[in-house]
Amino acid sequence: MSNGSHQIIEREDLRSRTHVFRDRAHAGAVLAEMLASHFENPPHAVVLAIPAGGVPVAAPIAERLALPLDLAVVSKITLPWNTEMGYGAVAFDGSVHLNDRLVRQCDLSEAQVEAGVARAREKVVRRSADLREGRSYTAVSGADVVLVDDGLASGFTLRAAIAAVRAAGAATITIAVPTAHESAARAIADSVEAIYCPNVRAGYRFAVADAYEAWSDVDEETVRAILADFRPPAAS
User: Fold this and answer.
1) Domain boundary among 130, 152, 174
2) pLDDT tens across 187-196, in order?
3) With 0-12 CB in 10 A as exposed, 13-18 as middle and 19+ as buried, what is 64?
4) DSSP string covering the chain, please?
5) Is-contact 149 158, C-beta < 8 A?
6) Going by fewer Cβ within 10 Å, which terminus of the chain is more open, N or C?
7) Cα distance between residue 27 and residue 58, in whole Å
8) Co-location of 101 and 124 in the same domain
């Protein structure tokens, strides 16, 4: 269903529930069915996954819609004393997005921010090269882009990806995430054409992993193997 003018298309039977997906591949299959009617024979469309967790979700979508699959590499800029907590993000085009309020709250110096940005930028460059194995980026100028991740919590990393894809000339951007916090989805919805999210949840406590029965980190070898299945055959 569509959630008002925000264009959040969800499944009411999965709202506020936990452990609704067996794993990321199952979540991708659920999303693929939701998206199938929206992307019926698109003239120029592409699926972009945010690695690493977004790639196993994106694969069933790209297969179901018969679309190319590529990456939108984004990295959090993390605190010096807590590498799990981010205060910004660097996108695949080199753009930097900072949460200025959090930078002030954490009393980060200019030198600390510069070092954090440099680390994140290095990670983006390395992952882009390693995961894509020398392939050039799929052109998104004028394309309808389906941007996929395995969940949406704060939304800051996804915002960086949206800005980079928009700057690359995408005609439209549709977000596909299996699970999202309602406030984060609403905050992002106005910057894209639509958000497809079967499992919308609210409340103080939210963890992306709670939507899945099986949850673990996705290693880079798995990402490369999935991408290889979508690589165009070599010209004879």
Assistant:
1) 130
2) 999 999 999 9
3) middle
4) -B-GGG-EE--GGGTT-SS-BSSHHHHHHHHHHHHHTTTSS-SSEEEEE-TTTHHHHHHHHHHHHT--EEE--EEEEEETTEEEEEEEEEETTS-EEE-HHHHHHTT--HHHHHHHHHHHHHHHHHHHHHHHTTPPPPP-TT-EEEEE-S-BSS-HHHHHHHHHHHHTT-SEEEEE-SEEEHHHHHHHHTTSSEEE-SEEE-SS---GGGGBSS--PPPHHHHHHHHHHTSPPPP-
5) yes
6) C
7) 9
8) yes
**Pair 222, 130: CB distance under 8 Å:** no
What is the value of pTM for the model shown? 0.91
Q: What is the pLDDT of residue 6?
A: 55
- The pLDDT tens digits for 22-64 are 999 999 999 999 999 887 777 789 999 999 999 999 999 999 9
**Which pLDDT score, from 0 to 100, does residue 156 have?**
84
Residues 222 and 188 reside in one and the same domain? yes
Tokens 């996705």: give the residue: 218
Quote the domain boundaries for residue 121.
77-130
Q: How far is the C-alpha of 224 from the C-alpha of 55, rounded, in Å?
A: 9
The pLDDT score that the predictor gives to residue 235 is 44
Q: Does 102 lie in the same domain as 48? A: no
Low-confidence ranges of the chain (pLDDT < 50): 1-5, 234-236
Same domain? For 81 and 165 the reply is: no
The verdict on 191 and 151 lying in the same domain is yes
